[in-house]
Amino acid sequence: MKTLPINLIAEKNLMHSPEPWLILLEITLSDVGATVLRFVKNTEDIVFDGNTYTAFPFQLSIVESNSEGQIPQVTLKVCNITRLLTPYLESLDGGIDSTVKVIVVNNGHLDEDYSELELEFSVMGCEADVLWVTWTLGMINPLNRRFPLYRYLANHCNWIFRGAECGYAGASTVCNRSFDDCIARENTANFGGFLGMQNDGIRIA
């Protein structure tokens, strides 16, 4: 069972904190190139997990729950005044079947592991006007999940850089997730690739 890192538990229990909790959106569109849009509900951009999240207005409803066995749904409203999303909506049937990852982070502890505070949804419906793009989000269809979960590659690490599995806490801020980069950072004990697969002969995975 996963638990929050100790720093986040302490921050959560504070009566008052100078560092705000922020909501991040990682929207992976259903186009051929899998365009990824990253937004943060904040007054300025932030960098989290090596990616820049652009300050952008959006509203996220509370997940609905009931006792009738219905799949919970969420309503996401993203500002449409700049028409940023319009080209995508027109070419992708409103973005149906795109995925939306919601991550809650603390601005003062962006290097912590937030996997316990992530939710992932699928876009099930879309409406748009001059002010808002409104997406109806539902739980991810398990049939669309990658199986097996990890790719079995010899020289490519499966772990997110500086994430819990990676465990790297040094000065470097970027990594190409190769074994050579892992050697340079003296972190080979946590390498998430399968080096044995690069040799000729029988390969078992």
Give a quick rundown of the structure.
The protein is mainly beta and 205 residues long. 9% of the residues lie in helices and 28% in strands. The chain folds into two domains: 6-144, Pnp Oxidase, Chain A (Roll), CATH 2.30.110; 147-205, no CATH class.
Present the secondary structure layout:
Layout: H1 6-12, E1 21-28, E2 36-40, E3 46-48, E4 51-55, E5 58-60, E6 73-79, H2 86-91, E7 99-106, E8 118-128, E9 132-139, H3 179-184
Parallel strand pairs: 2-4
Antiparallel strand pairs: 1-2, 1-7, 3-4, 5-6, 6-9, 7-8, 8-9
Keywords for this structure?
single chain, 205 residues, mainly beta, Pnp Oxidase, Chain A, 2 domains, 9-stranded mixed sheet, 3 helices, 9 strands
Describe this structure in words.
The chain is built from three helices and nine strands, in the order αββββββαβββα. The protein is globular. A hairpin with a 7-residue loop joins β1 and β2. With 205 residues, it is mainly β. The protein starts with 5 loop residues before the first helix and ends in a 21-residue tail after the last helix. The C terminus is likely disordered. A nine-stranded mixed beta sheet has the order 3-4-2-1-7-8-9-6-5, with no helix packed on it. The protein has two domains: 139 residues, Pnp Oxidase, Chain A; 59 residues, no CATH class.
